[in-house]
Amino acid sequence: MNFPADLRYTEEHEWIKIESDNTALVGVTDFAQSELGDIVFIEIETEGEELGANDIFGTIEAVKTVSDLFLPVAGKVLEVNSALADEPELVNNDPYEGGWLIRMEIADLSSLDGLMDAEAYKSLIGH
Amino acid sequence: MDTKKITLSDFHESIGGKMVPFAGFYMPVRYSSDNEEHKCVRESVGVFDVSHMGEFSLKGEKALDLIQKVCSNDASVLFDGKIQYAYLPNFDGGVVDDLLVYRVNATEYILVVNAGNIEKDWNWISSHNTFEVEMKNLSDETSLFAVQGPKATETLQKLTSVDLSAMDYYTFLKTEFAGHPNVTISATGYTGAGGFEIYLPNEIAEEVWKKIFEAGAEFDIKPIGLGARDTLRLEMGYCLYGNDITDTTSPLEAGLGWVTKFTKEFINSESLLAQKQAGLKRKLVGIEMIDRGIPRSHYEICDEDGNTIGEISSGTQSPTLGKGIAMGFVKTEFAKTGTEVFIKIREKLIKAQVCKMPFVEPGV
User: Fold this and answer.
1) In the CATH scheme, what is the code of domain A8-120?
2) For residue B200, what are the β-bridge partners?
3) Residue contacts between A and B (CB atoms, under 8 Å)
4) Closest-CA residue in chain A for B31?
5) Which chain A residue has its CA at the smallest distance from B226's CA?
6) pLDDT at site B2
7) Cβ contacts (< 8 Å) between B33 and chain A: which residues?
8) pLDDT digits (tens, 9 = 90+) for B181-204
9) Does any domain span residue B347?
10) pTM summary value
11) Alpha helix locations (H) across chain B?
């Protein structure tokens, strides 16, 4: 299982990747997609909304389960990955690149300091 | 109750099975991908280890009398080697379990019951055994592999001299299989993809599993988990105990009228007959999503004004159809095929319609 060193991770098994300035991509980790199994539907209807850290920004459905998606840090949901509407399996096959969920604007960059690095996340999930 | 391990539990884990507690057992939920496993069974051949299922042997001059009393279906029509689907009604209008009844001969039957209900069924049937029937619980010594899919017959034919293609659906025989005597081959399954279920002693389970996989290698045979088992059975509209039938759901409302035979007396038959004659208030129907969404167990079914008219009992995203499908109970006036209904998903009403089952044409 792969956990890129340039990402930050949450206890809810999401990752966040700074793109430039204060925008970032958010997705679920390789571990999360593997635990969930085949992702069949992603519903995110918070585009344009400003949300707090750990607020629910959408839901992700696997064959057997429905899980909430939690915003890693406070900010605004700028864009939803439109490719997921027809290919939700991108989350399984390419969780860190093609399977990103949202692009967000981070309210306060220092809030990233509260998240885990790859090593801390690996130890959280026992890898 | 402690979670039990089936014989090949460690083996499944070693070949990549993700083991989860289910019905009191650690069971493989998937090995690779639910959807790939589903497709493998629909298009080729896959093997489920369903050794958690329960098996009871009933022997005695009056074994049939006991079965006729506790089961809804008429087992007197069975002949040696014939299998019948039935359920055990309770006294309160619900269902203790659904099961298969195997007639070995006139004085010996095997009942195959759901894993989560083994103890409950044993106690229930025992409590009605006023017929001096000798009952034996074979569940802990029996392994069960469901070999399912269009290539199942060709795969298994390599391991036995019995002409499998000549076996009728819902028949079984005890024969030599994979070099072992006394293996039961049953032309049954829970997928609608065709195939067989193989009952065998635990001691030979690993060896026989491996022989089946050697025989199926040319068809890219795969191990299949419970995840795909659920999507496969749902596409067929087969009831799952605990979801679509329970201690409190009416078997008649659940569409089990076809295995409810009022030509004989059985537990609660009078009250079920009265229910049938009075007309059913709700019915279990198939539902397919028109707009996007995945219907799931316990979601509300509504009319266009948002009034509740029923509840989903099982639902999923159909891998074959690529859309949400479900089984659910609705008020009888909404049960007609084509009726537009709405499923409440996360407080929104998503459009769907009542449809015929099975959702997917069975392969065999």
Assistant:
1) 2.40.50.100
2) B143
3) 37
4) A37
5) A64
6) 87
7) 37-38, 92
8) 999 999 999 999 999 999 999 999
9) yes
10) 0.95
11) 9-14, 34-43, 63-70, 118-127, 152-157, 205-215, 226-236, 269-278
